[in-house]
Amino acid sequence: MKFGISFGGTYLPSRRMAELAKEAEAGGFEHIWFGDSQMVYRDPYVSMALCALNTSKVKLGTAVTNPYTRDPSVTANSILTAYEVAPGRIILGIGTGDSAVRCIDSKPRPVKEVESAVNTIRNLVEGREIEYKKR
């Protein structure tokens, strides 16, 4: 059985997150999840990269990002950059949106939009050209 951890709604400085990530890895956790909600958490991609530099084997992922507050092209760039810091240890969790979209007076995105975003992100991180459609 594998165990992962999220540090919940703690709006901790990224350096503290890196310390906790190191402790979590030493404690046997195999995954660390970072929320992506601008009013609840620090930036997950910066936090993942910093935590990656302070750990060696734990997998790090978003729990979860969404295609509304982060354009898929921005998400592709961010996740690819984090992956370059920790190859094989970065996971992209993506969903319809919750607190990140609600706090800007919007609604979660339709599943079809999330599917489209996943395809866009996948194509971009694999180096393929896409046809950009303004939302």
Structure commentary:
- The chain is α/β, with parallel strands linked by helices and about 140 residues long.
- The protein has one domain: Luciferase-like domain (TIM Barrel).
- Helices cover about 40% and strands about 10% of the residues.
- The chain contains five helices and four strands, in the order E-H-E-H-E-H-E-H-H.
- Strands 1-2-3-4 form a four-stranded parallel beta sheet, with helices on one face.
- Helix 1 links the parallel strand 1 and strand 2.
- Helix 1 packs across helix 2, helix 2 packs parallel to helix 3 and helix 3 packs across helix 5.
- The longest helix has 15 residues.
- The mean pLDDT is about 90.
Please write out the topology:
Blueprint lengths: L3 E3 L7 H13 L4 E4 L9 H10 L5 E4 L9 H14 L4 E2 L7 H4 L8 H15 L10
Parallel strand pairs: 1-2, 2-3, 3-4
Helix pairs in contact: 1-2, 2-3, 3-5
